[in-house]
Amino acid sequence: MTAACSRCSVTGATLRGVEALPVAVEVAVSGGIPGMAVVGMPDAAVQEARERVRAAIRASGFAMPNEKVVVNLAPGDLRKTGTGFDLPIAVGVLAATGQLDPAALRGRLFVGELSLEGSVRPAAGALAFGICARNRGLVLVGSADAARLPLGEVEQLGIARLSDLRPGGPGPRPLAAGPRGTAFVEDGAPDFSDVAGHEVAKRALQVAAAGGHGVLLVGPPGSGKTLLASRLTTILPPLSQDEMLEAAVVHSVAGEDVTPILAGRRPFRSPHHSASQAGLVGGGSPVRPGEISLAHQGVLFLDELPEFHGSTLQSMRQPMESGVVRITRAEGSVTLPARFMLAAAANPCPCGYYGAADGERECRCTDQQVRQYQGRIGGPLMDRIDLQLDVQRLPPESVMATGGGTDSATLREGVLRARAYASWREARADDGPPGPAQTVARCRLSEEDRAFLESMARSWRMSGRGIIRTLGVARTLADMDEASAVGRGHLAEALGFRLREGMGG
């Protein structure tokens, strides 16, 4: 224990989007009216830390100074959020009053929430804080209940209770090893073999997985749309280490369990159609990731697509193009990752039976109701969905044959082969920077096939984006065949997956 000093600085961190930024927690204890003031743009949760810190210090056997305590969070122009400032404020007060050695706090990043009894709880965003500590060469000190992060370069220490820091106490201890990037095993995991028939739909989902394309399934209730889409992650390639870390950080910041992702499972998000724009795209104060960011490196499934609010759906257009969400606030802009596969399902009309092939139930909707319902999705969003197909209800004998259809392993094998060929092809190509011109060049169309596509585009009044996206699907189909050039068959199948009447027109 050193002689009392009136000032001390401890390193903490705050979340800004999905990034943790270091914050200097400066504590000054001086004469004046007893009390504690926290300055430096703290939010309500940080302001409430005053009461938690007072109670935790007393409950842990330390003395709360009966003097004026000022806590400054620097830099002052950065908004500070969350309960993770409890621990750095508490250790800063104890060091400033001589109850802890200030030298023992140097080189450490403190993050943790305190209970009134002095126990240390994990704070949301542990993985982001770990990356912040790694980038700055600091030791991460938090709750002993936190799982060890998959960051081998970071030394992580845990504190069960604030009283562990008292002279003679156990002090911060290394955390136990946590989950690593291994294959995710789940009992009773869904498989495409559970879905009888629907071979065309399975083929479309395989193409979508091979090229990362968006897909829309349209059909009457009970036709298997949701069943098919819910199995899409089972045929996607395993997460790479970088993808795993990117996806896990988003879930960590949102306070969700990251264990499945760190074990290699791609995220699958299925928000209800009543979701707000902030809930779907992100927002709030502080800014929190929405469903499209939580689906980063995975699948976002929107069931009953026309039931979503129109403005909410249209807000996804920019993230679908760029792979990020940019949210602007008075204090600055926040960028959230949002590179996801969109899978959607929709009924063709309000009653759901327009165009049903089985003829068991007739559609009672008027033509105007059908057009109005299908138009809710909007043409601009539909233009960004590469594969659109009808899914019809199966006859009873096909349903009873469930379990014998094409399984996920077979479909995944085709996806992996297509992606491997695409990587080999792109490594040998010199087509210039990514863009429409590169997409056209990589297809290597013959003059006859180019004329065929131009003729179809005129007949169906396809937009420029629609033409380029159709070429992208055709290129994926060629990769699945390990063909260097896109042929007429690839173009015809890509057009068949895209061109259909209604739904957003």
In short:
With 505 residues, the chain is of the alpha/beta class. It has 20 helices and 19 strands. It has helices spanning 44-47, 49-59, 86-96, 126-135, 199-211, 225-229, 241-253, 259-262, 277-281, 291-294, 310-314, 317-322, 367-374, 379-382, 396-399, 408-428, 436-443, 447-459, 464-480, 488-498, and strands at 7-16, 19-30, 35-39, 68-74, 108-110, 113-114, 120-121, 139-143, 156-159, 173-174, 215-218, 268-269, 282-283, 288-289, 299-302, 324-329, 332-337, 341-346, 387-390.
Cα-to-Cα separation, first versus last residue: 74 Å
CATH topology of the largest domain: Rossmann fold
What percentage of the residues does DSSP assign to strands (E)? 15-25%
- The counted number of beta strands is 19
The CATH class of the largest domain turns out to be: Alpha Beta
Count of helix runs: 20
Q: Which CATH architecture of the largest domain is right?
A: 3-Layer(aba) Sandwich
Overall geometry comes to: elongated
Mean pLDDT: 90
Report Rg: 28 Å
Q: How would you sum up the major sheet?
A: 5 strands, parallel
Secondary structure category: alpha/beta
Describe this structure in words.
With 505 residues, this protein is of the alpha/beta class. The protein folds into three domains: 7-174, Ribosomal Protein S5, domain 2 (2-Layer Sandwich), CATH 3.30.230.10; 192-413, Rossmann fold (3-Layer(aba) Sandwich), CATH 3.40.50.300; 429-505, Helicase, Ruva Protein, domain 3 (Orthogonal Bundle). The protein is built from 20 helices and 19 strands. It has helices at 44-47, 49-59, 86-96, 126-135, 199-211, 225-229, 241-253, 259-262, 277-281, 291-294, 310-314, 317-322, 367-374, 379-382, 396-399, 408-428, 436-443, 447-459, 464-480, 488-498, and strands at residues 7-16, 19-30, 35-39, 68-74, 108-110, 113-114, 120-121, 139-143, 156-159, 173-174, 215-218, 268-269, 282-283, 288-289, 299-302, 324-329, 332-337, 341-346, 387-390. It has a five-stranded parallel beta sheet with strand order 12-15-18-11-19. Strands 1-2-4-3 form a four-stranded mixed beta sheet. The N and C termini lie far apart (74 Å).
